[in-house]
Amino acid sequence: MHLLITIDTEVYPLSPRWHNARELSEDIARDIDGVTRYGEFGLMRQLQVLRESELKAVFFVEGLFASVPEVGLDPLKRICDQVLSNGHEVQLHLHPEWMPYIPRFEASFGRHLLHSYSYDVQYSLISEALSNLQRAGAHHVVAFRAGDFAADLTTLRVLSELGIHYDASYNACYLPDTCKLGALGELLAPTRWGSIIEVPVTTFVDRPNHLRPFQSCACSAREIEALIAAARVAQYPIVTMVSHTFEDIRDRRHPRRAPSPKPYASKRLQAMGRMLTRPENRDVRSLGFSGLEPITASSPLVPLSGSIFRTAARLVEQLRDRIPV
Questions:
Q1: DSSP secondary structure letters along 240-267
Q2: DSSP-derived secondary structure for 183-215
Q3: Which of 68, 151, 163, 304 has the fewest CB neighbours in a 10 Å radius?
Q4: pLDDT digit string, tens, across residues 228-279
Q5: How many Å apart are CA 216 and CA 281, to the nearest integer?
Q6: Which of 15, 105, 114 is nearest to 62 (CA)?
Q7: Of residues 49, 111, 98, the one with CA closest to residue 245
Q8: Whether the predicted model's global pTM rises above the 0.85 cut
């Protein structure tokens, strides 16, 4: 079985000084580097844990922000250099929220969801972000994920036109509100749509009539272990995990408290790495998009289910993660 670890790598201009200061240093320190008074819990720490665990990951790097004149290409190049030099993949992520800060962009900003825009506008946004990634050193961009999973069939047509072969925006937990890919059906494994292979985020039922994504901040270490074991028994060819560079810190948006690490969430990637070194898990191989195309399910798949007891234990962890230190 294959494990696809995907980490959305994005920054938001939350600092009131970023535009006048003509830089995003405070916001990058928070959202990308995960800087707290206890150390860094963002990109570099994730790269270290992945290296120690001998795991490969895919970093979906938001590329549109580099078109903002006050920001430029240097921060994006630094991010790409760090990821690529550690042997991981850089793929394309996009948030339209940067549109108002790009003077030469002719389309007006309406909503932050990519599927809100026409084919022409989506094409301009995605091609602009793709060009930025390529100029920053990411020369093998073959996969895309929309911010907030907000892709639709128009997005897939744009990706096909631009030569991007994989989309990872399908997340059943976001259907139909944010993700508009419901026309593809219930996806549990990579599925071809025209020239695009849609790679869904793995989900599971954590309590009656409720889906939960396989996401590091959304699952306890025990849930992650149980989910991988259940997927193997169910003969899933691949499970796809989601994370962000800022998932292990709290109070990112708090007006007074400084960001600090989440005691439980910050240890989950390490715990998964240790779990995968056990003899019974040696058939689970982490990979990037270069190895996905031949992967197909050998038999019809069934949705994965969790345990109400593990769900309850995770809720306790999440409550304790919210207590300020």
A1: EEEEETTTTEE-TT-SSSPPEE-TTGGG
A2: GG---SS-EEETTEEE-PPPEEEEETTEEEE-B
A3: 163
A4: 999 999 999 999 999 999 988 887 777 778 887 877 777 888 888 888 888 8
A5: 19
A6: 114
A7: 49
A8: yes
